[in-house]
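On clarity, I found the account of how folds are encoded harder to follow than it need be. An entry of this sort, consisting of the sequence and the corresponding backbone structure tokens, reads as follows:
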Amino acid sequence: MAKKRVHEIAKERGLPSKEVIAKLQAAGFDVKAAASSVDERDIATAFDPRPAPAPAPASASASQPSSGPKVDPFAKLFGPRRGVDRSDRAS
């Protein structure tokens, strides 16, 4: 994406450069002067923030414990580990 100088952003929006710098700094961007360059995506983030999406509600099946045996994720990829106590496994 293209970069713009802070003074160009201020001119486009009809704001003083100091206000643009303050808004960008409040959004967490490292801007120190009117000659600082800012990516267009960062400009959009600072001036047109969209509300964060609401977290999805937890499903009923996710809150219930699994009835099956616990599976080692390492074993799924690479097979059973050597040297691990396997007394709880069915033969």
